[in-house]
Every structure is written in C-alpha cells, then in structure tokens.
Write a structure and sequence with these properties.
Length: 187
C-alpha cells in the first residue's frame, strides 16, 4: 500500500511571506540591540571619562594634565594585564580539571557502535576497490567431512581394571595389544 503524500496546509507563497516577515523582525531586533549597546557604551564612557577642558591652560598645567593621563593609562594597562593573566590561568585550570574529570571517569566516552555484517567479498571490495576480482567464498573451499561414529565401532568393555593391567603386563600383553590393533582393520 503506497503512502499518500500529505499536502501542506500553508501554500508556498504564504511560507515565503512568513519567512520574509520573520527576517525583517529579526533585523529590527538586531538593529535595536546594536543601538542599545552603542548607547550603553557612550553612557559608560561619559561616566568614567570626564571631558577634557584644555582651553585657557598654561603650558605647565597641560604638562601636568598629560602626566595625570599617562598615570591613569598605566593603571588601566596594569589592570587589563592582570585580568588577562587571570583569565588565561582560569581557562588553563578549567581545561586541566576537565581532563582530570575524564581520567577519573575511566575510559573516554565511546560512541555506541552498531554491529554490521559484511561478507568477505564486500570487505575486500571496500578495502581494495575495483582491484578485487577473486571471490572469497570460504565455505565453498572447505572439504566436507562425514562425522564418524567411533563409539559404534569400538564397544566399551567395563571390567575390573586390575585384571586388565595384569593381562597386559609383560611381553604377552604387548603382543595382545598389537594383535588387537591389527584385527579391526583386517575385518
């Protein structure tokens, strides 16, 4: 019974219109977020850095202002360097801790593997490509062997083992063993 394809409830033109509306809305949100970031940045800079008034200052006052600014820049650079060093240290520590966690768990996580049955011919084709011409039907090359029933040929005699040992001792016992081994094949 072939499957019947279901028709979409939304037409292609409606889908296209909805997609364009979603993209327009996303663009508006992105632009608004960008403007908010810029406004936050301007507000932060206005708060942290007062405007410089250099008009009407003498040469020595300008030099003092430059020295103050250089000192502030050095402090900010030291803070930035310290923060970067802490950040690098923290990332290294996080990486080391992740490795320790993996080591403590034991083995690394292995993906679940599925058992795939591949014939010898398919495996050789995959490994060698088109060079593979020989068939590897291993079962056809095996010889068929009939299972012989050895128990039916030799009846098992249960008796006193001491009598058997006494009978087989000496040269006469060896002759009996030799004759017994010879007789089943001659029948």
């Amino acid at each position: 019974m072939p499957e019947v394809e279901r028709k979409s409830k939304i037409t292609a033109s409606r889908k296209l219109m909805l997609k364009s509306l979603m993209l327009a809305k996303a663009k508006e949100c992105w632009e608004q977020e960008h403007e908010e970031r810029e406004a936050e940045k301007a507000r932060y800079l206005a708060e942290r850095i007062p405007t410089l008034q250099t008009r009407g200052l003498s040469l020595s006052a300008l030099q003092d202002l430059c020295r103050e600014l250089h000192a502030k820049v050095e402090v900010v650079d030291e803070e930035r360097y310290d923060i970067e060093a802490k950040c690098l240290h923290n990332t290294r520590e996080i990486k080391d801790l992740k490795l320790k966690v993996l080591d403590l768990r034991g083995k690394f996580k292995r993906p679940p593997l599925r058992r795939v049955r591949v014939s010898a011919d398919a495996m050789l084709r995959a490994l060698l490509g088109s060079k593979h011409k020989v068939s590897m039907d291993l079962r056809a090359n095996l010889k068929s062997v009939k299972k012989e029933d050895t128990e039916k040929e030799r009846p098992v005699e249960v008796g006193d083992w001491r009598k058997n040992v006494e009978a087989m001792s000496g040269m006469e016992g060896r002759k009996k063993m030799f004759d017994a081994a010879k007789s089943p094949t001659s029948q």
